[in-house]
Amino acid sequence: MSEYLQRPVQTLSGGQEQRVAIAGALAEACKALILDEFTTFLDESDQMGVIKAVQNLLDISEVTALWVTHCLEELEYADGAVYMEDGRVITHGDAASISKFIKAKQSLYIHRINS
Predict the structure, then answer these.
(1) What's this model's pTM, rounded to 2 decimal places?
(2) Which residues contact 84 (CB under 8 A, 6 or more apart)?
(3) DSSP line for 30-54
């Protein structure tokens, strides 16, 4: 992001702003990151790259990240997950079991609408 160092903030895209905000939090040596839909403004091609970069930083530092997402592909980078509906915790566990739970709910929903 060094190429954006001298640019006014208002000239940055949403994705660039997201990256700068994450970089700033990491530069401040924070112990926890709360990332709410942090890939939303990124191009699809950039989303996984940013997730992998954040994951690599988390792996080599003592920073904990909690991120909110609707993107099931991001579960593969999680140590654990919580599934919520209407602000209530429905289930929680390791990422694989939550992914399986969500896919089962999707399958049931699809079966209902096709019946």
Answers:
(1) 0.70
(2) 90
(3) -SEEEEESTTTTS-HHHHHHHHHHH
Q: Does residue 64 share a domain with residue 25?
A: yes
Q: Map tokens 């079966």 to a residue.
A: 111
Q: Are 88 and 65 found together in one domain?
A: no
Which residue range is the domain that position 115 belongs to? 80-115
Return the beta strands (E) in 6-105 as ranges: 32-36, 64-68, 81-85, 88-93
Q: Which two tokens stand for residue 26?
A: 């990491």
Q: How far is CA 71 from CA 1, 2, 7, 13, 115, in A?
A: 24, 28, 31, 21, 27
Answer yes or no: is pLDDT of 82 > 70.
Answer: yes
Query: The tokens of 9 are what?
Result: 């903030």
pLDDT of residue 1: 63
State how far the Cα of 13 lies from the Cα of 26, in Å rounded to an integer: 20
